[in-house]
Amino acid sequence: MEQTYLTIPDPRSCEVDIEKDIHVQYNKIKEKAERLSKVDEEIIDLIDLTDEEYDTVESYRDRFTEIRVIYEKYYNQQNETSSVVSNKCTPDNLQLPKLRLKEYDLMPRSWVAFWGQFCRIDEDESIRLEDKFQYLLSSLKTNTKARDIVESYPPSKENYSKVIEHLKSRFGRKDLLIEVYIRDLLALVNSKTNIKLSDLYEKLGSYLRALETLGVTTSNYAAMLYPVVESCLPVEILKAWDRHRLNREVKEDSIIKTEKVLENLVSFLRHEVEGEEHRVLAETAFGNGIKRKDTHKPVHKDEPTAATLIANSSAGENNCVFCDRSHPSQECRKISNMNYDDRKRQVMLKRCCLVCLKPGHMAKKCHSNVRCLICERRHYALLCPDLRKGNSSLPKRKVADEEAKSTEILLTSHSSEYEIYLKTIIVRLRHKGKEVCVRALMDDGSHRSYIEKSLVAELNLSPSGTEVLSQGLFGGGISPTAEHGRFSVTVESLDRKYSTSVALLDQPKICSTLPRIRDKTLLTKLASRGIVLTDVGRDTPPIRILLGADVLGSILTGRIEV
User: Fold this and answer.
1) Which domain of life is it from (predicted)?
2) pTM of the full predicted structure?
């Protein structure tokens, strides 16, 4: 055992290539030490050991104990440490670049970024104050106000704290910085340029984070920040936000805290920006950076209105085809000096539809419900082919069928000579969400305006007062005195371009049946001058409104065509 012990090298000076031999020698010593200890116990019971023999036995035990401690301490711990170190992926030769201090001009908007960088140096107690002074100089741009202030102090440790206090009081005032970022938010509100949503989101986030760094947190100042941030949004995003907010609110908790609303608004903007980026990515072709073309052609649909159903007049958003002014083409006065061929040629030159007079599609693809007052085909009266025929068509039709034409001429002549048309129009009455189109008689011989009692009940009108009066009749007669309720209602044109509130007195019946204009020749002449009547048709609905002299002055335009 003593020879084996002497062959074991010191583990502290071992190399890696002899580790295996060390383990083998240790196991041999361990096995011999166990056998020797067993034999010593048997001999002690049989004979008495002298002091010298007993010291020899103890010396071998002490040597083995020393070997075991050395082995376990150095080899086992090194194996465990090497296994842990081998699992880590931190190369010893990795060298990070040295950090360089960024230079600032130290204007109010850059103070937050500057102090975020320099505060680590200022709070580091291991750096001497003289060195901090030099670091401060290297962080400021030359030829700036802040650099001049720092250089005005001698670079000593006593002046370092004075310089820092001077800079904080000059550029780092909290109230000044808050005002600067609030003004930046207001500048976004008043910005007249179109800002991309992603850029707007980044600017808003930058300003809000800067305010939060200064202590203006959403929990304390959300009531002030929310309306400002909301006013920065474009109209389309603001509408989408309103829909999103209404969908999130529930009846049990309809009142959401203001700070939560601001957080939800910022989160909503983030999702909108991410969705926009995803949409752009989806529209981009694979690998070539070319956006995908839209293969679906938009379908132009004209919304039918009451004006197109009754009077074949609709308000267009495009400029006039004939004079390039901002009014519907079918209402242009210039067409009175143009014949049918010139009108059609002008529409075709502008590449507009011959049905609705709007650009972007052809007549065969038009979905408009326009109907001609003269021939009831799909076009406006100003483009009716019957306009170019004029009086020259009468002899041709008379030659074709003289007897039938003679009868038609007699009927037309009789109608034009003896039938009198009063001033009747179609108007829209509106009251508290209810609307109805009715026939109205314009009578400037009546001092007051009236409404049929059944129409009062239909619109659910409430009286604003009562009046007691009698009516003068033709021939000098006077009707019995009667009480009439006074009602206020909004009278509106069919194209919704004009509306006014009038006071009307109720009356059981306005007047007897009044005919509508059915003379195609008269309608053709009026259409050639750009005049489109509303009260036309074959049926004769009752007159339900009488507009007297008390309101006609504010309704009539004064335009007269002879």
Assistant:
1) Eukaryota
2) 0.32
